[in-house]
Design goal:
Layout (H helix, E strand, L loop, with lengths): L8 H6 L6 E13 L4 E6 L7 E5 L6 H6 L5 E10 L7 E12 L15 H6 L8 H23 L3 E2 L5 E2 L11 E2 L26 E3 L4 H11 L1 E9 L12 E10 L3 H22 L1 H17 L10 H10 L3 E4 H9 L2 H4 L16 H12 L3 E4 L21 E6 L3 E8 L4 H11 L7 H8 L5 E7 H9 L20
Parallel strand pairs: 3-5, 6-10, 12-13
Antiparallel strand pairs: 1-2, 1-4, 2-3, 4-5, 7-9, 8-9, 10-11, 11-16, 13-14, 14-15, 15-16
Helix pairs in contact: 4-6, 4-7, 4-14, 6-8
The structure holds 4-amino-1,4-dioxobutan-2-aminium adenosine-5'-monophosphate and magnesium ion.
């Protein structure tokens, strides 16, 4: 007989089953009551709301009730009745309760009290059973689904680009090596270097930092594509915005110039945020309250003016500010924190790379809305970006979000073979190794553009979580690959 005959709590709360018999299964959050009755709050993950099971000791034996503790998994069958207490419309009067899995109360780490984020990170294998993480991962799911919905509706094709590659798409040298060689005793070439021709792929390989280069190949055939996959960066950044393993969405479009690219990115970001607002109401209301509590604990100058839900609504309802890097530098140069030397990195000349403190100043203090920064100096951007006529800048765009900083990086691509190869030579990127990439410029080149959205940064923005480690189930950061 099939086991999975249950009502999901989400559906039970939405439909009126009053007077009917049903079964729920889930994990016990709390049990309270007295010798005449027990109230058991059960959560099955389908919603942030718990469902109350009422157990009469004349019906449910003392022996079973004893085993129902926080963290245990139970199956409860009984009649759905209108609830006496406040907070929910209905509850289950148990006729039978089966303990599917006990949880030793002395050993179960998650007690019905507030745990610190650090503690929960150390217990990441269990933290999805808390309200906060349940909400975060349901929102994360909705955002991922919205990504596919958006592009599918627009006729984009989902391409799976390789995880193991022999190239470094961003040319930043932050790759993780993939090798099956014996590290203690690797085969050597005549001049003593490691001989990667003896390695599994008969060459040096690494985990991908971006699917863009392969995405461009697909766009030169299918016209409008996107990727959505894991990417890996061995950058030693211990910040609340960096992961060594993160998920990226990279659309790539033939026949799009830089402005088309900006329009698509803005529309796309607004769409997925709206989708989450529409489909994750209960979770976002919970996270909104949580963010307000966190905000109140911060020093006054670090507090955000808008609450989480207001912030989401604001981003969806307003045009993003679009300015060039050159204009941004002027604003930053003349800004108070720059003049008063409050920035850790003082902006004194054109060409400086922007740090997150500068990005956040532009977004949070100056414009107070998302900003699309365009036309960066070519020397601080990747080799593939389209060179502008000024000879100094490229058709890059970064999108900066409040509380996050850079959430999207993208550009129009250089389709001119000569300009592209000249730039590759200048930057020491091998034409020979990327012959396949250059073939798209050799055969049927066209203006094209694309961008990459850091998925976790978007989940952070929508959930209001302060640390990127708390929006991915099992974060990978320097010194941390547990679970
Ligand atoms: O700006 P990035 O490096 O751009 C690219 O990789 C391009 N190939 C994208 C493209 O044009 N197709 O990365 C894109 C985004 C960043 O804006 C940021 O949101 C996110 O990826 N990102 C990270 N997220 C978490 N941890 C890290 N270490 C990240 N590095 C980049
Ligand atoms: Mg970038």
């Amino acid at each position: 007989m099939a086991f999975n005959k249950r009502s999901k709590i989400k559906l039970l709360l939405e439909s009126s089953k009053i007077g009917k018999n049903t079964t729920i299964m889930g994990w016990v959050r709390t049990k309270r009551g007295n010798k005449n009755v027990s109230f058991i709050a059960v959560n099955d993950g389908s919603t942030i709301q718990n469902y109350q099971v009422v157990a009469d000791p004349n019906v449910i034996s003392e022996e079973v009730l004893k085993r129902i503790t926080t963290g245990a998994c139970i199956k409860a069958t009984g009649e759905v009745v209108a609830s006496q207490g406040a907070g929910q419309d209905s509850e289950l009067i148990a006729q039978k309760i089966e303990v599917l899995g006990e949880a030793d109360a002395d050993k179960y780490p998650l007690q019905p009290k507030k745990h610190s984020m650090e503690f929960l990170r150390e217990n990441a294998h269990l933290r999805m059973r808390t309200n906060t993480f349940g909400a975060v991962f349901r929102v994360r799911h909705a955002l991922a689904f919205a990504v596919h919905q958006y592009f599918n509706d627009k006729g984009f094709f989902y391409i799976h680009t390789p995880i193991i590659t022999a190239s470094d798409a961003e040319g930043a040298g932050e790759t993780f090596r993939v090798s099956t060689l014996d590290m203690k005793n690797p085969p050597l070439t005549e001049d003593g270097a490691v001989d990667y021709t003896k390695d599994f792929f008969e060459r040096e390989t690494n985990l991908t930092v971006s699917g863009q280069l392969e995405g461009e190949l697909a766009a030169m055939a299918l016209a409008e594509i996107y990727t959505f996959g894991p990417t890996f960066r061995a950058e030693n950044s211990n910040t609340t915005r960096h992961l060594a393993e993160f998920w990226m969405i990279e659309p790539e479009m033939a026949f799009y110039d830089a402005e088309d690219n900006q329009d698509l990115a803005e529309d796309f970001l607004k769409y997925i945020i709206s989708y989450a607002m529409e489909h994750c109401k209960a979770d976002l209301e919970f996270l909104d309250k949580r963010a307000a509590e966190e905000n109140a604990k911060k020093p006054t100058n670090e507090r955000t003016e808008l609450g989480l839900l207001d912030r989401l609504r604001f981003v969806v309802d307003h045009d993003f500010e679009r300015i060039s890097y050159t204009e941004a530098i002027e604003i930053l140069k003349n800004s108070k924190p720059n003049k008063k030397k409050k920035f850790s990195y003082i902006i004194d000349e054109w060409g400086a790379d922007l740090q997150s403190e500068h990005e956040r100043f532009l977004v949070e203090k100056h414009f107070k809305k998302p900003v699309i920064l365009t036309d960066y100096p070519k020397d601080i951007k990747a080799f593939y970006m389209k060179q502008n006529d000024d000879g100094k800048t490229v058709a890059a765009m970064d999108i900066l979000f409040p509380g996050i900083g850079e959430i999207v990086g993208g550009s129009q691509r250089e389709e001119n073979m000569e300009k592209l190869t000249t730039r590759m030579d200048e930057m020491g990127i091998s034409q020979e190794e990327l012959y396949w990439y250059l073939d798209t410029r050799r055969f049927g080149a066209t203006p094209h553009s694309g961008f990459g959205l850091g998925f976790e940064r978007m989940v952070q923005f929508v959930t209001g979580m302060g640390n990127i480690r708390d929006v991915i189930a099992f974060p990978r950061t320097p010194g941390n690959a547990e679970f």
